[in-house]
Structure formats: structure tokens, C-alpha cells
């Protein structure tokens, strides 16, 4: 597992870090992966993890090692990246974009490709453009109200059934939802309420289609409900993604413990302003993103700041946080004790608000033992 | 200028656009560059544009064509990218990061490199690590309160003067500020008030240092004040950056007209929800960023949406805006007339809130005639 130096007590290797860098604790990532894989097995559902969070072939390999064979991505570009690494059962969990029909055909000729539709009309256009078979999942809006078919819109679901019955290349595989409204939860009870309500919506949608398509699959997946729920009645597969790293948002929601957060952004301190209780780090909106959670004073917080130590980083307590970001600057509001210890030239760790966006911005990972892991 | 096809009336070339794409109107960009260059000349100040916005060698060339020879960047990585393209007078307008001393030495041996310090102690560390000469600017906090020396903190300014007098490789070039509080303005009067207050602060700081360093330069620069002000008393150079493209934020501040916005994100429509007045576009937080301006109802707006036309894109009116973004999805709240016309598979244009962040995320430009322009 490449952690020999950690076990030997040599500690985290930070040599050569001069710019904002994603530090990944491979042990924590592998534990997050194993825990979710075991839960899926225990609950009798397929584990089709969302790879949009890490977007890395090497981290994908860690999923292979616990038996994962089917994955989710959020763009055709990502699907190609992973197909080129041997993944051959990929769901693109984004409404099918017919402007990329050439890439769809390329992928469909090589792998088992699962696409998503929100509108029955799209099925006909897709069928007309395809040169190889694909499976199709109808996106159902289980309460998030981003996109998808209302589960109680029986006429639209029936039009889907009709359109799909007429297709030769598009096979009707199932219904899919993303209960993204779980991100508004701030307690286990609220997450579980979203979970139950979402599964109930999926059951209603499936009922409409069951007479013509008795074997339709039900696919759900968002990190909060998949992290918290222990029962997935009526579900065939789960597709969580952010659990691989977790982050401050997931902690706030109640989906993880801070000790499970497996990735931080390591940033150099470049200025100190003790008079106003702040330090400035090289780490801004182009590294952390502008995503925010609400701080105790109601103002946005763009990450929690903590110290690096021999084992990686200390569990943050929230006493130091990123209170503002411009393009390259981050402003850290620090408690007096930490402020005193943060000197210009030091490195600090930032637990990001939203791991998917921070990982996308910084673009490569470094393990605790100093190995670089690339991503798309 | 590569716009022959436009003049010929053939119109914007959108063929092959399948994913979120930055569309740049070269004519508008060149007009924005010329206007700022002419203003600098008229006002008797050096024009040292900030290249962090476009980060493109080709667009840098358009600046060369109006006589620009000195530039600003916000990281040493960016400095190297432009130094490798022949730029030989570069200011890194970010507190000097001593963790990158090897890159500093590499650049200092090749070009005229100007660095920034916030703390007198940093000057000594920098001097100790240097193998080639650099110029140094002291960062002054003229009211933004991100970082910099208080202009009325005479002891610190005098310590800078002493430290710099003892240096062999670090030459004291001047004082620099970024009046980023201009971004809170929402009227010309407020922008001009920030401008006057900022220049006054710089004059006070310069006074402290003038007896020992009579030739110190004064460098200022933020797009709102540089766009609006017509007089820069006591200033030697201006460093605006975002004016090259402008954006919705700059329009809201009062720094530009919407007709001057020179870059949009072109995004495919992937779903429609007429019942709630919304369409879904392929264009989310990993394309537009999560930056926002406040909408009329107090809720965040992540961009204004408009139609593409033969000349590029129509000037938006605000009747259609991006009301939410997740990783790849954007939700557009649309007026009934535009909603009716936006069909799945169409392309729409999004005027971004913050051009620097959107350009950083999408990562390459396409001109109206379909040419691709790369960036760092």
C-alpha cells in the first residue's frame, strides 16, 4: 500500500512543497472505500461508486482491489478516461448530451455504456444517432428538483416506456436519482428522512413502469444518505462519490467524522496580521473553490485550517478557518494559539468545504509518503 | 486579426462545440486592451497589465502589439510561463513565497523580476536565498485589508527602508497596492472615492520613505478604479487585469458596459423544466465557478444567460440567469420568451460572474471564427 515509511514512523514527507498541494492519506481513503463496499454488500446492493470526485485511475485501482467493477462518472470525457484504463461498465450520471454523439458511439462500441435521459424525446434522438447499443436510465426527480421526471408524472413515464419499446439500440435498464437535497440536512434524522422519501419516490416511479418492464433497476446515490443509511429497500445499486475523501460540508451535514476526511490542501503561509487575528496563505479561489459553509457568525467559511504532523494532519477543531478567498490568496482567521505558531514560510493544511471542487482545481494528489497521483 | 470571416458576414463558428467552451470576441478584447493602453498613456502612467485573467501567450501578444513591455502575474508559475515567451519585466503581485526560491533564482537570472514583500523580515530571508538580483515592492494596504503594510505604520515602513539599505541583491523599487475594496462599489462615485482614498494612502506611505528613497515607484491597479478613473496623481504604473474580458461582477460594480464583455461560456442545454421556468445546462461549478452576484430576490446569481447570434452573442438583459450550479449542472431561470426558444441540444452563452475564475476552470479559449487559443 505504499505506506511503509508511515509504519516505520518516518512521518509525512512534505519536502519540495512550494505551492498549494493536495495531500491524500491513502490509508483513510482505502478505509472509506472498504467501509462503503462492505455496506453495499451487507445491504445487497451493487456498489457503483461515482468517480467524479477523485477522477484518478490510480485511486480507481484501489476500488478494483475491493471488487468494484462498475462505476459512475459525470461526463463523457471522464467516461473515456476510465474506459481507456479498462473500466467496461460505466454510467454517465448526467442528462445525455447529444452534441457528443461521436464520443457516445466510440464508447458504446467499446464498453457497456449507461446513459441518462430526462425527456422521452431524447430517447428517439439518441436511437437515431447510435451505431452501437447503450443502456438507458430515466432520471427521476426524487425531491432535489435539479432535474429529472416527477415520479408522479405517469404520462411522461409511460411515454418513456413507449419510446423505449420502439428502440433497437437503446435498452431500458432502469431509473436513477440523486437525492441531492440530503446536502441541506444537518442531522442524521434529516438525512434518513430524505433517504426514505427518496426511496419512496423511486418505488412510485417504478410501479408505473413495472407492468411493461418488471426487471428495471433502481439506482440511487449521494454521499450523505449512503454514508448514514443502513437499509436500501427496493434499491439495486448505490453511487456515492464524495465519501472517498469526505470534506467539511459532509462533516457539517453529519455524513462523516472529521477523522474520516482523507484529503487536505497544503498551503504555504505568506503573510501574518496578528493585529486582526489573521494570516494569509497561498491558497485561494483557484485552489479551494469559492464554495462555503456558514460560519458561527453567519459569514462564509471556505475551509478549516489545521496543523500538519508526523501522521499527516491534526483533526481540526474549527478554531482556524479560511474566511475569504480571492484568486490566489486565502485569509485565515486563527485562534491566538495557532496564530502565534503559524509563521511565514510554514505549511498549513486546509480541510476543504467541497472535496470534488478542490480536487478538480488543484489537479493532482500527493500521498503522505510523497508520491504523486495524477488525475484527469 | 483573424476576423475575416466575421467581416464577410459568415458569423460565429460554433461547429463541434459539445462541452462548455469559452468563446472570446477578439475584437472586443483588443478594444478593451487599446482603451486601457490609451488611458495609461493619456494619464502618464506605465501600463503593466495583470495577466492572471487570461494567462495566455497569444492574448499576451495582443498586448505587445499596443506597446506593452512589462506585465504583472500572481504566481511564479505564471511568471515562468510568460518569461518562456520572451516577457522580460514581470511583477509577481503576490507576497513572495520563499518556498519557491529555486524558481525565483531561475527567473531572476533570466529576466527583470519584481517581487512583493509584506514583512521586513522577509527581505532578509530573500536576500539570503538569492543568487541573482531582484527588485522589491513593499505591499501597502490601502484599505482592502487583505494584506500589506498599513500606510500609517511608520515604524514598519522604516524597518523596510533599513533592511533594504543593507541588501546587495534586493533593490527597493517601490510600493504597490491593490484597492480590492473597489469591488464592493456599486456606483461610479463609490469607485472614485475608493480610488482617491487609495492614492492618498499610497502618498502617505511614500512620504515616509521619500527622504531615503526619493525615486520609489507607486504601483496601483484593480479593474474598477482603472476603468473609471481618469486621473492617477502620484502613480507610476497601473496593473488592471479583468478588464481584458470584463464580466457580470464588473458590470454590477459599474466598471464596464455589458457590450464590453468579451468572453462568454457557451454551454449545451441538456434538460428543460418549463413548469418551473428553468432549463438545465452542461455548465456547472467546475466550469463557471461558484462565484456569485446577488440577484433581484437576494439569491445568488452565477451568470447571465443570453443567445448566440451571427456576431457572437446578444447583449444579455438579466431576464435569464444561472440560479444554481452543482459540479457539472447549471440551472438557468429563464423568462417565458427565452425558455420557449431554448431547446435540448441548443447552445446558450453565459456571461460569467468572475471572468478570471471561469477562464481558469475551462482552460482554453475559442475565437468567434473557431480558432483555439491555449492558456497556462
TrEMBL record, chains A, B:
GO terms for molecular function: D-serine ammonia-lyase activity. Signal peptide: none annotated. Keywords: Lyase. Residues 262-369 form the D-serine dehydratase-like domain. One of its GO terms (biological process) is D-serine catabolic process. It holds the Pfam family Ala_racemase_N. SMART domains: D-ser_dehydrat (SM01119). Coiled coil: none annotated. Transmembrane segments: none annotated. It comes from the Bacteria. Belongs to the DSD1 family. This is D-serine deaminase, pyridoxal phosphate-dependent. It comes from Desulfacinum infernum DSM 9756.
Amino acid at each position: 500500500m505504499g505506506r511503509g515509511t508511515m509504519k516505520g514512523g518516518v512521518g509525512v514527507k512534505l519536502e519540495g512543497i512550494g505551492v498549494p498541494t493536495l495531500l491524500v492519506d491513502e490509508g483513510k481513503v482505502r478505509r472509506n472505500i472498504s467501509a462503503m463496499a462492505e455496506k453495499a454488500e451487507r445491504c445487497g446492493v451493487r456498489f457503483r461508486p461515482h468517480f467524479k470526485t477523485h477522477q484518478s485511475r490510480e485511486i480507481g485501482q484501489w476500488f478494483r482491489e475491493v471488487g468494484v467493477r462498475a462505476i459512475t462518472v459525470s461526463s463523457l470525457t471522464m467516461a473515456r478516461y476510465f474506459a481507456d484504463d479498462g473500466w467496461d461498465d460505466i454510467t454517465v450520471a448526467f442528462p445525455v448530451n447529444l452534441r457528443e454523439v461521436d464520443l457516445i458511439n466510440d464508447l458504446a462500441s467499446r464498453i457497456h455504456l449507461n446513459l441518462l435521459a430526462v425527456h422521452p424525446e431524447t430517447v428517439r434522438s439518441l436511437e437515431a444517432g447510435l451505431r452501437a447499443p447503450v443502456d438507458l436510465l430515466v432520471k427521476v426527480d426524487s425531491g432535489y428538483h435539479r432535474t429529472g421526471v416527477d415520479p408522479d408524472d405517469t404520462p411522461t413515464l409511460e411515454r418513456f416506456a413507449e419510446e423505449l419499446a420502439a428502440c433497437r439500440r437503446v435498452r431500458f435498464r432502469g431509473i436513477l436519482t440523486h437525492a441531492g437535497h440530503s446536502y441541506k440536512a444537518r442531522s442524521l434524522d434529516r438525512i434518513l428522512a430524505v433517504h426514505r422519501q427518496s426511496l419512496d419516490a423511486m418505488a412510485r416511479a417504478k410501479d408505473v413502469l413495472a407492468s411493461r418492464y418488471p426487471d428495471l433497476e433502481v439506482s440511487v446515490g449521494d454521499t450523505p444518505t449512503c454514508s448514514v443509511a443502513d437499509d436500501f429497500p427496493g434499491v439495486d445499486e448505490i453511487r456515492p462519490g464524495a465519501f472517498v475523501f469526505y470534506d467539511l460540508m459532509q462533516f457539517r451535514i453529519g455524513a462523516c467524522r472529521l477523522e474520516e476526511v482523507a484529503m487536505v490542501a497544503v498551503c504555504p503561509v505568506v503573510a501574518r496580521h496578528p493585529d486582526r487575528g489573521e494570516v494569509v496563505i497561498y491558497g485561494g479561489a483557484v485552489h479551494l473553490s469559492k464554495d462555503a459553509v456558514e460560519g458561527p457568525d453567519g459569514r462564509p467559511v471556505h475551509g478549516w485550517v489545521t496543523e500538519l504532523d508526523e501522521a499527516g494532519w491534526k483533526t481540526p477543531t474549527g478554531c482556524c478557518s479560511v474566511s475569504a478567498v480571492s484568486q490566489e490568496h486565502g485569509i485565515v482567521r486563527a485562534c491566538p494559539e495557532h496564530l502565534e505558531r503559524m509563521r511565514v514560510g510554514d505549511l498549513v493544511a486546509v480541510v476543504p468545504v467541497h472535496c470534488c471542487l478542490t480536487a478538480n482545481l488543484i489537479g493532482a494528489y500527493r500521498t503522505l509518503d510523497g508520491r504523486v497521483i495524477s488525475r484527469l
